[in-house]
């Protein structure tokens, strides 16, 4: 692992891809925390204000999320506001549909889900454009999880809080090993741990479904991209085969999509069960 810093000069090894936290040599899932100001990009150019993406291009609206590229276009803001509202509605419906012996438990769960809903659209947009998951956005989700965990302890349920922390730590260790092997970025590790901690309030099946679905989505996207790349190369000149490899598959959107599928599925299961009972 090697990271860039302001004013440094970094030389990339042939065939390596810059992930912000280090190199991903032949990896598949390559989200990270992003390029630092003044770091070298894979095409040999230098990022002046940190707005460059790993393929050497500038992001249209990703710089705004970093605080240095101006405001987002109004259309993008409107789309993300609608997405946040929709995800928040899913979180409320899932929490309301899940029976709880203590109403406080449902409210505590909702706090964490709403925190993830608030940052999901921005995380997906930035990871798709720049292959990075900004710490400030992941921190919002982590903060919501921390608040919900603290409320559980204050509400007299320390066992659930300890379980949440233990499972999140286990996910972080697993993710760190994957990151060292070049399969994930550190941003993915942090986000995966937070989402695991939030889903730990359910049963083990929810966690298995979350990670299984996230991995399946990543493999599927990688397969589609590989097939598309080979198809384009077969129609292009032979010289195109010497083009540099792609930037890999952003794993952050896969994690978030799997998370919301599990959350929505929880409420759907309860609703279906209620209908079957009535019938």
Detailed description of the structure:
The chain is mainly α and 279 residues long. It contains eight helices and two strands, in the order ββαααααααα. A hairpin with a 4-residue loop joins strand 1 and strand 2.
Helix-strand layout with pairing:
Elements: E1 17-18, E2 23-24, H1 62-65, H2 74-97, H3 103-130, H4 135-154, H5 158-180, H6 186-199, H7 204-235, H8 251-278
Antiparallel strand pairs: 1-2
Which structural traits does this protein have?
single chain; mainly alpha; two-stranded antiparallel ribbon; globular; disordered N terminus
Outline of the structure:
This protein is mostly helical. 62% of the residues lie in helices and 1% in strands.
What's the alpha carbon Rg, rounded to whole Å?
Answer: 20 Å
How many helix segments? 8
Output mean pLDDT. 75
Q: Helical residue percent?
A: 55-70%
Largest sheet: 2 strands, antiparallel
State the order of secondary-structure elements, H for helix, E for strand: EEHHHHHHHH
Shape: globular
Question: How many β-strand runs?
Answer: 2
By secondary-structure content and strand pairing, the structural class works out as mainly alpha
Detail the poorly predicted runs: 1-28, 34-42, 46-68, 238-246
What separation lies between the terminal Cα atoms? 59 Å
**Strands ordered across the widest β-sheet:** 1-2
| Proportion of beta-strand residues | under 5%
